[in-house]
Design goal:
This protein has 129 residues and is mainly alpha-helical. It has five helices and three strands.
Length: 129
Amino acid sequence: MYRISQEADWISEDEFPAAPEWADVHEEWLRFVDSKEQTARFASRLRKSAYQRDRTFSEIAVGYFLETKCSLPIIEWEPHGEAQTRAEFIVGSSEERVFIEVKTGGWQKDIKEAEGRNSPRFVQPKYSR
């Protein structure tokens, strides 16, 4: 996490990671990506805005979950889809392949749906203890 946070644009945007437990989880995800020799693929996006960092960690988290918890190995990173789109990865085996594209709505969307657009949560920092 220290390596990624050096010169990151998001350093002054929020208090990421909000708690040591979450730092440990993010470190595990980074170790996973490193073990797959994919750190370079994610490093620049992890250093951009907090929004981009969170989206990128979401992609990494899904890959980590599918491979380590569901036994669905990643067999291709950033595969081409239709109409010149790219997905995050393909998981599965040579016989069965699943095209994975991660969509994220952001924490503001979750709050808006749960509490409405006038929620007092919007004036608080993203990470609060």
